[in-house]
Amino acid sequence: MKQIFFGLIFLLAVMPARAQTDTMKIKDLSAEWRMRSSRDGIIPLINIESFSGNSLFIPIPLSEYRGNLLRLYSAEEVSIFQGDKLLMLFQGEKWMDVDSLREVYGDSVIYTLYNRRLNPYSISTEIYRITDVQTSRMIRSDQVIIDAKEKSDIRNVLIFTILLILAFATVLYYYYPRMVRDFFRLTRAVSLRELDENLMKTRPLSLVNLFFYLLESMLAAWVLFVLVQYSDFYYRFNFMHFEGFGRGLFIWARLALVIFGLLMLKYLLVRSFKALFHISGFLNSHFYNYIRIGLLFYTVLALFLFAAIFTMHIVDPSFYRGLMITVLILFGLRAVLIYFKLMNESSHTILHLFSYLCATELIPLVIVLSWGINQTM
After folding, report:
1. If 73 and its partner were Cys, which of 31, 63, 124, 171 is the partner (CB 3.0–4.6 Å)?
2. In 3D, which of 329, 287, 310 has the Cα closest to residue 12?
């Protein structure tokens, strides 16, 4: 645990500064958006929550932003019109040079974005200025390599929260070194037979164990926060939208508390069905293995995501979409591993044990998978 802590501190200290370009957002054009009203025609979109219809009108005063770049982003496929002319079918991100647009359209242009089920939360229209840091000169649009999700608030929240998690884990290791080693022992976590007598004899709801459940909740919330913020389905989760460091920190803390509550619900579920199926001695083994595998799982994911963002600078939303799907698949593998662990220490029939696991693992897993896959597809 100490090695992980100091290793991440070293990464924070030496991660290369991205000094090739200076990217500055100078205007969010969402304040200029308009919608079509059946009664009043085209009207300003004062509040995005009041949007209705299937078309979004975006007036762009090109003369005001000479020498800059227009960034369009849509998480879902939309048709882009200029007047009655269809320009393109578009999904993802596109950067356009404002001066080049002025040569075609003059001092202003109005783009119309259309989709039968248009979601304005999935759309972003912004004006950026991109300069070379060393020469302070503007960079042409065809030379720009831009971080599509480069938000200083997100990065600050991620750095602060990972340091908070590491500090909490270090305190746990200082006071409970044996418990930390037991929870993070990889060979026992993946073994098909239960070998850990020390951990299994402790009480699941003792104070020290609650600390470890909180640690797992913090790690899981951090991983979920990263995957949502950097993926291309970010706009589908309205509750994850934020501006400012404090609001981002609040969202992460709220996620951690929700996940902690779900872990407690998981414990009650396992305990209830253990009594219902008359299976003795399974509570500690089942629940601790669930927590232990999750702790290892989220720790590895957090380290990988930290490296992907701060050292490898991976910003492709499809990468994080694929990683989210991988996470959902790994949830299934955890259930399979728990099944074999319990089967090897149980004297009950396979059918009886399988029915118990269906109620405690497989049905909740199917619910999570169906929801998660529907969100990521």
Report:
1. 124
2. 310
